[in-house]
Each structure stands twice: as structure tokens, then as C-alpha cells.
Amino acid sequence: AGENFEQTPLRRTFKSKVLARYPENVEWNPFDQDAVGMLCMPKGLAFKTQADCREPQFHSFIITREDGSRTFGFSLTFFEEVTSKQICSAMQTLYHMHNAEYDILHTPPTNDKESCSSAGDCNGTSVSKLQRFNSYDISRDTLYVSKCICLITPMSFMKACKKVLEQLHQAVTSPQPPPLPLESYIYNILYEVPLPPAGRSLKFSGVYGPIICQRPSTNELPLFDFPVKEVFELLGVENVVQLFTCALLEFQILLYSQ
């Protein structure tokens, strides 16, 4: 995905696609496959090996429609081992091509045999380049690919959705199966757990423990289910105070982020 061919294959991004969705149709929320795929994996599909960090990552997003209505998405991205031999072989081939192109671009155009003290030195240079850039070996490394599970909701219950996704992922990766079939938990969250009434909280059972979501009443501040601590960690105290001042003075505020 993109023209980042100068990067090594494991540092490139690849096009993602939606593998499955449930339910197939929701009247109040028609499914946009391209938008959801892009928002779940904004940087595209990624590959890693056992040497890379593969901790699950959580993020949220908003889909705003033409009529101004909003739906909220919550995505947990994790890495699964690639079991397809064809994909592993394709990654190995990409690395061979990348190394060959690198050698062509960086080999000095000379036929002077005296530039190397011996044939062994020249071969040694080539081998060191190969070791430097051939960071995936099909016979030695385990290849992993990114995958994500996502919940799309009418309200921004971030903490509850994060717990649901984390517990579902734990159930899939745990050596012990969950108490009930995984489909029953998904059915429960989609069809049996209602939205809490305004001013009330709701407690329901997850795969491994209870999950609570709260909804403010009509005379309280709107729902903002995100930890303010992260804002201070990302921006710092001075910037947060300045941002708050600008909001009170009704200045236009632009947040720019990668």
C-alpha cells in the first residue's frame, strides 16, 4: 500500500481487507467496508517476525455520515502467526529482490580487481550486506501478520468496548477454551445488552469478568469515556492549559497528528 519500496519488506505496509463482519446488515448503520478497513488499519497491513514487539494495540475512531450522524469504532490490533507457506515464500522472495536492488544501487562501477585485496574480502562485503538487510529467513524466522477485531457502536463507550475486545482476544489466544462458545458472547453483546438509560449505569458479563458502562443524564456533561491522563501525557501540562484557554476564549483549534 503506497510507494515505500525503498523500505525493507517487513517495514512496508500492505493493503488490508475486511475478512468477516456480523451481522451482515444493520438498518441504522450501513456497513462501509472501505472506510472501516482504512480506519481499523490506517497504516495498512503489517508483517513482523519473532524479533519485533507484537503487543496488541487499541485505538478508537469516528465515522461521520453525510447527515451528520456519528457512529463510534473501537479496534484492537494484534499479530497472528502466518501459516501459509505461499505468503512466507513471497516474503522471502521480496527480500531477495530488495537485497539484489540494494547491491546494484550501492556497488561502485569498477572492474578493477585490485579494489579488493582478495576474492574473500569482496564476498565478505556481499555477505555482510545480505546479513544486514535480509532480516527474514524462511528457515529461521517466524512470520506474523496484523489482524484486528472491531466493535462499532452508537455511543462512545470506550472503556467497556476495550474490555470486550481484550477479553475476546484473550479467549482466542488462551490455551484453555472460554466457559461458553465464543459466538455466544458476541451474540450477547450485539443483541442482549441494551444501551443504559440516561443517568444510569449498566453491568453485564464479559468472557472473563463483569463489564460496566455508564451514561450521563441529560443535565450532566456529555459522555466522554476517555482517560484525561493520556491528554496530559501526550501534550504536557502547559499545552493542555493553553488548549483549555483557547477553548474558553472560543479560538479556532487545529490538532495535527500522524
TrEMBL record:
MF terms (GO), sorted A to Z: guanyl-nucleotide exchange factor activity; small GTPase binding
Alphabetical list of Pfam families matching this protein: DENN (PF02141), uDENN (PF03456)
PROSITE patterns, sorted: DENN
GO biological process, one term: retrograde transport, endosome to Golgi
One Gene Ontology cellular component: cytosol
Gene3D superfamilies cross-referenced by the UniProt entry: 3.30.450.200, 3.40.50.11500
InterPro entries attached to this UniProt entry: cDENN_dom, DEN5A/B, DENN_C, Tripartite_DENN, uDENN_dom
Keywords from the UniProt entry: Guanine-nucleotide releasing factor
Location of the UDENN domain: 1-258
Entry protein name: DEN5A protein
Gene for this chain: Dennd5a
